[in-house]
Model the fold of this input.
Amino acid sequence: MAKVTLEKASEILGISTNLLRNWEKRKLIHGEKNHNIKVFDLELLKWVHNNLNGKYQEVGFKILKTPDKKTIKSIELFAGCGGMALGLENAGFAHELLVEKDKDCINTLQKNRPRWKIFHEDVSEINFKPYQGKIDIVSGGFPCQAFSYAGKGKGFEDIRGTLFFEFARCLAEVKPKIAIAENVRGLLSHKQGKTLAIILDSFRKLGYDPYYKVVSAQFLDVPQKRDRLIIIACRQDLNITPIFPEEQAYTISLREALKNCPKSPGVEYNARKKAIMELVPPGGNWKNLPIDIQKSYLKNSFYKGGGRTGFAKRLSWDEPCLTITCSPAQTQTERCHPDQTRPLNIREYARIQTFPDDWEFRGSLTSQYRQIGNAVPVNMAYHIGRCVIKMLNQKIEENKDKLTTEKIKQLSIPGLKI
Done:
């Protein structure tokens, strides 16, 4: 795929570089460094240009699933309501064990996948040694807790008392070929990068080479602008070359994602908030409100800096959804339907996270929103799973799919193991 600078794209498409930079700010396009010059996928730029000019071409929104036999044996920790697990199953994984502590998440998992072996326990109470030598992959999105920085270099002592310690303990006891860890992008800068450094160092001490990259869900068949940090750690004795998902030259709009979406319950606005949101056009936010309403609605936040784009935000039909949160009606992270003056409902939330329509969520309405908002998008997990299967099978076209040392260097990630 052709890569061009914004200046060259401006010349080819006949639009201003300022408009192109606005697309990047809105996360409709993404660039990458090539010899310190930022370049962009020309096909993606053309796609966005056509889309925003009324020439949208549907790509066929669907839940991705391979017909291949499920031969990759895995354990998943902190499974939540099953976004990562379902995506990996769709990619060809066979789950030997899932671990989750939250009761509502457990009920969701058991309702949808009664065949899965699911432990409703605190992960610290589980002995993983019986699985040693029987598991290919250990995966999980461990919560990021406080780490001890004073003792850096002491291995497990640095991470003891955190949930990442339990993830690491599982690796030590199971010794899988590959570990997949998912976390928020903010982990890159947490404690000035010290937290991530300790995590990477812990992987190495366990005999794994860790590689990581920020992956954008909106370029992986997910109708949502959602960045996640993905760590792939390969067992050092196996000499496995890491592969990260190749981002697509298209995105899926909210219009396409919510087409024929089943009806479902959802939270509602109170009368005052509904009256305010009625004034916001599709794609708009608090800036579209009269100045007196801006001040009363934002209160002290009105006088603070920053974009504050989540306040009174009504979504746009023509773009992927903004990152969904654990509640679509929070003041600072509003997720209002493009046409109807209401927050997104449960099935719309699930569609945006690429759960199938028959995936049922258990618990209260608040719990269901929280489960879906915390989940890994199913299609993103699918793409990650397919990459891991390529890594294990070593069926890689040398000049097309293999992530060479040079390509790894181009990721420009501090502390990346090569």
Notes: The chain has three domains: 3-52, 72-251+377-410, 258-374. Residues 243 and 387 are 6 Å apart (CA to CA). The chain has a mean pLDDT of 89. Residues 3-52 form one domain.
